[in-house]
Specification:
Layout (H helix, E strand, L loop, with lengths): L14 E2 L14 E5 L3 H6 L4 E3 L2 E3 L1 H7 L4 E6 L11 H13 L3 E6 L24 H21 L6 E4 L22 H20 L6 E7 L1 H13 L7 E5 L9 H14 L3 E6 L29 H17 L4 E4 L10 E2 L2 E2 L9 E2 L5 E2 L14 E8 L8 E5 L7 E5 L8 E8 L7 E4 L14 E2 L8 E4 L2 E2 L1
Parallel strand pairs: 1-18, 2-5, 2-11, 5-6, 6-7, 7-8, 8-9, 9-10, 10-11, 16-22
Antiparallel strand pairs: 3-4, 12-13, 14-15, 16-19, 17-18, 17-20, 21-23
């Protein structure tokens, strides 16, 4: 690792990060996840998951293939299905835990699919849709009671999503795909904060304090949404969840990687690609139309076994290099059966699962993407000492932050007020460029508002002892 100090031209409007985002914490584990919300239903419909010709328990099989996190959805009161309710969630968590996997519980806060196009208020809460305090209280009570019920049975999830792909305003009434009014952030923030508080309060009474995830669909939408959320007081979250499907995104893998890198420096949260998938064929096993076809493919990744696996390996490698902490596949076990959906008999996803009906339900090579040989990012620490007698915060800008409008405020080390540190991850063998200032740089667009710290750079990690200069 070589790190160079290069003084760069001024960039206007550098954004200060919140204080709690400034110091990187201990590395989080990497989550190789699978959304298994359909598995219980598929088994009831006769699905058999095999490996080497032998029928296998799907939860145990996923754990054997490297999955360490199971994601499961919950709807409020979906009268059109017997699944994705509290009883179904109980079964999923029990089986996932028996296979020694962690669990992410995904509250949709709807009686049906909530996604980037629509967030429909549950029918039981429809009368209070425009009464924000009442709706926030209902959301709090439902979330809290659901988690306390699960915890009483030893089933508290390890992570909780407060909403699913909440690009539009939470719990609206319109189909946002055809009518997309602006978000009322006073209302939206009240609802999110009620859900977050419910998770925190339930966790405070449990041996497991679930991490809180907020989730937005497609990388190009994530940064604007979180900027608005933070501005309106939605700040208490641990994980940023991103859906990435090339069919519905304007970004390639480069754009996804860059977005993740910026997010982890902007916010005191880790980043997870919490939904992605890729087809291993464009063929179908049934009459139900598949959602991922030729329009879902990236150049260099054909709809083949090799293409599906390489997509997952390359995407995961990019997430790791960007400093993200997980990738979750959606939904690798929604295979074709004799059961029907509202869209036809079978599945809309069998060509993008991990199980090939043409080979009697054997796993595709992508199923073991967790076992690939990944290159880990390099962790570096910038260690900075101020001149004797100087005090206060320092400000760091670097190209590794991923944007010209991001600056990191460095607080003095608790044991030595003249010492400052910043730890981050970068791609291996990367030269980075950075500047350090003794006040917020380029405040009001003026370079003179900050003093550039003259630095001396070591061979690997950065260690500097300074005097200040204009």
């Amino acid at each position: 690792m070589k790190i160079r100090r290069i003084l760069l031209p001024a960039f206007a409007a550098l954004m200060a990060l919140p204080a709690q985002a400034q110091q990187a914490g201990q590395p989080a584990p990497f989550y190789f996840g699978a959304d298994l919300s359909y598995v219980n239903e598929m088994e009831d419909c006769g699905a058999i998951y095999r490996k080497d010709g032998q029928a296998r328990d799907p939860y145990g099989l996923f754990a054997e293939m490297g999955t360490n996190l199971v994601r499961v959805r919950i709807w409020n009161d979906a009268e059109w299905t017997n699944y994705s309710d509290l009883d179904d969630v109980r079964e999923t968590i029990r089986r996932a835990r028996a296979a020694r996997m962690e669990v992410l519980l995904d509250f949709h806060y709807s009686d049906d699919w909530a996604d980037g196009d629509k967030q429909i208020v549950p029918k039981a809460w429809r009368s209070m849709r425009d009464d924000t305090p009442a709706l926030a209280q209902a959301l709090y009570d439902y979330t809290f009671q659901t988690l306390r019920t699960l915890d009483a049975e030893g089933l508290m999830p390890d992570q909780v999503q407060v909403g699913n792909e909440t690009n539009p305003e939470m719990m609206g009434e319109l189909d946002w795909k055809t009518a997309r009014p602006g978000i009322n952030w006073e209302r939206n923030a009240a609802l999110f904060n009620a859900g977050i508080k419910a998770v925190r309060d339930a966790g405070a009474q449990s041996s497991i304090q679930p991490l809180v995830m907020l989730h937005i669909a497609q990388p190009e939408n994530v940064e604007p949404w979180f900027a608005d959320a933070w501005k309106h007081g939605v700040t208490d979250f641990d994980l940023i969840g991103v859906s990435y499907y090339r069919k519905w995104s304007t970004q390639g893998l480069d754009g996804l990687e860059q977005t993740i890198n910026r997010l982890r420096h902007r916010y005191p949260a880790e980043v997870v690609v919490v939904e992605t998938a890729y087809p291993f064929t464009t063929d179908s096993a049934d009459d139900s139309p598949n959602l991922l076809g030729e329009d879902s493919l990236l150049p260099g990744y054909p709809a083949t076994y090799e293409g599906q696996r390489q997509y997952m390996v390359d995407l995961t490698q990019r997430v790791k290099f960007a400093g993200g902490v997980g990738v979750v596949y959606w939904e690798p076990a929604w295979v074709s059966t004799d059961c029907s959906t509202r869209w036809g008999q079978g599945s809309n996803w069998e060509n993008a699962t991990y199980f090939d009906w043409r080979r009697d339900g054997e796993p595709t090579p992508a199923a073991t993407f967790a076992q690939a040989a990944y290159q880990e990012p390099t962790t570096i620490t910038l260690t900075i000492r101020r001149p004797e007698g100087a005090a206060g915060s320092l400000w760091l800008w670097g190209d590794f932050l991923g944007a010209n409008d991001v600056a990191v405020r460095l607080a003095p080390d608790g044991s030595d007020p003249g010492l400052y540190r910043y730890t981050t991850k970068v791609r291996p063998e990367t030269d980075i460029r950075f500047q350090v200032f003794d006040r917020r740089p380029f405040e009001r667009g003026l370079l003179e508002s900050g003093q550039v710290i003259a630095v001396h750079v070591g061979n690997d990690d950065f260690v500097g002892v300074y005097s200040t200069t204009r």
